[in-house]
Specification:
Layout: H1 3-41, E1 51-55, H2 62-77, E2 81-85, H3 92-104, E3 109-112, H4 118-129, E4 134-137, E5 148-151, H5 154-168, E6 173-179, H6 185-198, E7 204-211, H7 216-229, E8 233-238, H8 243-254, E9 260-264, H9 268-275, E10 281-284, H10 287-302, E11 310-312, E12 316-319, H11 328-331
Parallel strand pairs: 1-2, 1-3, 3-4, 4-5, 5-11, 6-7, 6-8, 8-9, 9-10
Antiparallel strand pairs: 10-12
Helix pairs in contact: 2-10, 3-4, 5-6, 7-8
Bound molecules: beta-D-glucopyranose (BGC).
Beta-D-glucopyranose binds near residues 138 and 242.
Amino acid sequence: MSNRKWTLILIPVFLLFVWLLFQFTLSSLQIHQLAEQLKTVSPTGGGSDTKVVLISQELDNYYWRSIEQGARKAAEQHDMKLDYIGPDRINPSEQVKLLDKAIASKADAILVQGINDPEYRRLINKAAGLGIPVITIDTDEPGSRRLAYVGTDNEGAGKQMGELLAKASGERGDIGVMISSERVENQRLRLAGFRSVISRYPNLHIVEIRSSNISRLQAAQQAQNMLTQYPQIRYMVGFSALDGLGILEASERRGAQNLKIFAFDDMAETLEAIKDRKIELTIVQQPMEMGAKAIKLLNDYLKGNDPQKLTYTRVHEVHADPPDNMTGNDRQ
Ligand code: BGC
């Protein structure tokens, strides 16, 4: 065959080869891109399309906003999307509805406060059945199929408060207690722990327990009623974040000179009142850490690691008059 004929045959073969090579490179690139996308959207592996819903006890409560802050920061780190929702005012049946909605909206994971309610447990179990992990935060929902609990050991914190009050009172005196509500499980547990310690001291008496519904206004009103009805009360304990400040308001209104107040949590005003020696002490929980830890745990779970069922976040005390045996950290 002549050279010219060879050239005529080889040119199309060469062009075909180049075209095939081009197609091969193109599809390899497309497969690679697809694989990268899959890595970020897979709901079981975490990632930017993992939608976490956090349902609070009350939307604009400072304590829940702190949980949100911790959770949001951690969610950003793990490339997750966080939706923060909750009732405008404390309302357990609204929490049930919001959980139902979160499941219907196909959230990839849900963080909730336990409310000790059978319908709520049924919904948590439903979510678990659908493969949506639910983590309880601040208050547990035992008996449900929640994945894990992250928060304070509430009974332990109640006992701690009992010991602190026994010491500060010289183990005698009448006590008034403010809880958010008997129906709120963490309050029931804190109260049970507190009672178990106080009952060991024959001269310490809990004379009255009232509810604030996590409202500072209601705490002030109820504390005032308590002080009117039982003027012999020398010690008042507030078991949720705004109770201590409500009690302080009532005590100032009534000019109750000898009343010692024991609070929970670290709102700026509570810490200010401790500095001014208007509140004796506070037991401080770690809401931000709760939010962050819950997200971290979720991320580990989505990556295939089974979490431990109970993660207790620490509490610390802030005292107006720190006891001698306290470390620098505890004093603040
Ligand atoms: C409790 C929360 C509550 C908050 C209300 C905290 O002490 O742990 O359950 O929502 O107080 O202010």
